[in-house]
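Re: your question from the hallway

Yes, I did run it. Sequences:
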Amino acid sequence: MFARAQRLREAGVLGLNERNTDFIMRLNPRRLYPRVDDKVITKELALEAGMAVPELYGVISNQGEIKEFSDIVAERESFVVKPAQGSGGDGILVVTGRSQRKRDSFRLASGVLISRGEISHHISNIVGGQYSLSGNRDKALIEYCVNFDPVFAEVSHQGVPDIRVIVYRGYPAMAMVRLPTRASDGKANLHQGAVGAGVDMSLGETLAGVLGNELVDEHPDTGALVAGLQIPQWDFILETAARGFEVTELGYLGVDMVIDRDLGPMILEMNARPGLNIQIANGTGLANRIARIEEVFDPHAAPEQRALFARREFATNRQTSIQFDR
Amino acid sequence: MKQQYVYGLAALLAIVGLSVFVYKWQVLDFPLTRNQETPVYTIESSIRFDSGPGSIKVNLLIPTLTPGFRMLNENSVSRGYGFSLNYGSGGREAQWTIRRADGSQTIYYRISVYEDEGINQSDTTPPFPPPPVINEPFKTAVDVIVADVKEQSADTASFTAELIRRMTDASPDPNVELLLSNATTRAELVDSITTILASARIPARMVHGIELQGRQQRNVEPVTWLEVHDGDQWRYFNPMTGEENLPERFLVWWRGNEPLISVEGGSNVQVEFAVQENHLDAVAIAETQVAQQGAHAIDFSLYSLPIQTQAVYSVLLMIPIGALIMVILRNIVGIDAFGTFMPVLIALAFRETKLVWGVILFSVLVALGLSIRFLLEKLRLLLVPRLSAVLIVVVILMLLISLVSHRLGMETGLSVALFPMVIIAMTIERMSVVWEERGPVDAMRAGAGSLLVAITAYVFMGLPWLEHLIFTFPELLLVILSLVLLAGRYTGYRLLELSRFKALTGQ
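Structure:
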């Protein structure tokens, strides 16, 4: 038991306790949490900083406003409903189309048709606080539904694959691509059964994936190889993630991005308590990379420089990490 | 830097808690385990006499210094008499007075003592006694005996032993025979011995005491013993054998040759002793003792609270133990559970229902609640009304379970009412959300985790010795607090993370 703890320590694996005490509590002052916990605020801040975000169609902040849902959606074919203070992808409804004849029935990403009444009830739950972190009243966002780039089409089951970048004091430290599965119901959340694939920071190329706590080579639904996919605009993605630090001032930050077919990479949300499974997906620990960042940390470095540093330093050494080429 | 603060604070709390604990344990004699009972002897002396026509004054000599015993309490039962305790020349005296009394009178004096090795003679060193004035022909006899015995002894102890041997010899020499010619009782024998010792300038006196033996003794006769001071300490001698010893459990009642009792204005005086052995909780004895000494630790003792409040606190004080278990299982082992303290509250309920029934009732309640919660989901209720509906359903379910189990003759089912219903309602709600969002596997896992934590907390919170320890030494809560603080800065891996990150160990 202690031997295994020792080996994990040597591999630089970060544990939950250490993440919570040494990083989240130290680097993420609570007063900054609303910046990432409330997606409306995150969106505003990101827009101010000139970053791309999915367009916000409207916000419903109390039960009385639910009837405005139809006006907000208008004739749009696709949109996403999500709680402003949700966590772990809970409460997100992805509408990808609507019935042409019956305009008030909507088709979800999973293919299921639901009525406007059901969506209203869902919004009502969101506003009531069912999905909010604190259980308090919440707001529901209705926003642009990303047309994701076909690069991950082969390795996704419905839903929107996204890219999670852990940014430590402004420096991108580790990244992974989160691929929805049938089990995750189209959500790109590892806790719900999505596949996470590590990313070679220098090339922007995917490595093997992780499902639960186990390594997988193929997507469980499509059977396509997860590894070896080139993420488009990797430079830009790393820079945007690095810039997340300026926007939120959180020293330990998870930046979630999606790549739209037409609009390119956008910030979907940011997270003050990013999970640790990213380490399994990358086959390496975070602690070593964080230690390396601490060595060179320069508070005046520009986001481009920090992104460059990550590309230079955190190449995945394929000799020692997981072999995925057959 | 913060790390050091935490360690410092934790160390401080632990030191304070442990030192108070050790003080109470070692110095004030609070017992470490429950049901540690100490035999307590209650000696009752009943004084009977016929009252005369005038005022009555009764003086009874009572224990003053009692080597080997500590007094727990004393009291007197005497109807209509004035009562006071005085210090006389022979030690403490109890005095009862009344202006007028009719007929036969009975007065009781009771004292409770328990054995305590720590109580030693703290008597003062007496001066050398003046040579007693003895008339001839006794004086010559005494001088001869003293000279003879001195010849055959080395020190005070051997002198005394040799003297007693001669005095109790079956065929005594003429001098002894002369001295003992009018000594018929044991007390008179001891009196003669002290007189001879006094003329040898050895301080000596009579001790009268009671041998405490058996659970109940009636009509106990006080026994007279000889006490001799050798310049350092008092030593006890058996006046019949010359052996230096005291009987086992010998309670010294009074010293000297004064009579035990004197009654002015009464006649036919009789004193009887009775002994009763009881077993008293060691905590109670320690408490009484501390109260007598005026130590302040007692002011904060939970035993000073009313019994009902004590019962409440004996449960409440176990909650920190449950919280500590919770901290360990969640942050060091890494078990998932619903709510922060839900398992601890469930564990509290288990105390009343007992474990097996508790687990069954809890599972039934949550399972039924969950299925009804899924029905409610279809109604599309707003959040707060839905939670309230779940709460009401939980109450109704508890009622039904009680009724059904009562019908079936399973009275244990009635204890379902002890579950914290609001907590259960929240658990059901939380579980159903997890069920829908993350699937039944996650929901069941967290539910099982909660139950596991609750069971573990129950086991620890139900340990009788632990309960006694915390209740008797509440300062140990500071130690628990310091442990929780330390766990709050634990940055190592959780046990379950070791298997979670197994893929990263490179093997």
